[in-house]
Design goal:
By secondary structure, the protein is mainly α. It contains seven helices and three strands, in the order H-H-H-E-E-E-H-H-H-H.
């Protein structure tokens, strides 16, 4: 009696063919493959979104005027000063201390505005990936990166906006 006739060989042959057939119909394997494909797709999406955000930020600039409207500072994506303009020859009647204060104010506000733009652009990448419950988002200490003033201004932005509006209204009345 040969092994094939006894049934032993047939069972063994079935086992050799079994793992391939079992993997194809195994719901756990299919579920894992589907989750892996979904995770890889989400990762590709995040990677392309990150490249797009990086390209957008590399071209970004922010221009801000001082409260007295004598100076305008423009900064680049890393907060570097790109341009400094003295408006309407107001600097001619200012003391050196007043001018220095206006310059520092405009540059500082422009840098803070750029920092907030970076924070807003990067915020989606700090959240967990959809469909990947075990992977948490990144926790970025923005105050450590940009200084505490950025997060303070973000929370009190309405009050600062109101001050600028009052300044605009006051200036309109002076004309």
């Amino acid at each position: 009696m040969s092994a094939g006739e006894s049934g032993i060989g047939t069972a063994r042959e079935g086992k050799d063919d079994g793992p391939d057939a079992t993997m194809a119909v195994n719901p756990y394997t299919e579920s894992l493959s589907a989750r892996l494909a979904e995770t890889l797709s989400a990762l590709e999406s995040v990677t392309s979104d990150m490249a797009r955000a990086k390209a957008e930020l590399s071209e970004a600039t922010r221009a801000v005027r001082s409260r007295d409207r004598s100076v305008e500072a423009t900064v680049g994506p890393q907060g570097q000063l790109l341009d400094l303009r003295f408006l309407d020859n107001k600097y001619r009647t200012m003391s050196s201390t007043e001018l220095a204060s206006s310059v520092l104010e405009a540059v500082s506000q422009a840098r803070d505005a750029m920092s907030r733009q970076v924070m807003e652009t990067m915020a989606p990448f700090t959240r967990p990936l959809p469909g990947v419950p075990d992977m948490e988002g990144m926790d970025i200490d923005w105050a450590d990166l940009f200084g505490t003033g950025v997060s303070d201004e973000q929370e009190t932005g309405l009050r600062k906006g109101d001050a600028r509006l009052r300044d605009e209204i006051d200036e309109d009345g002076e004309e």
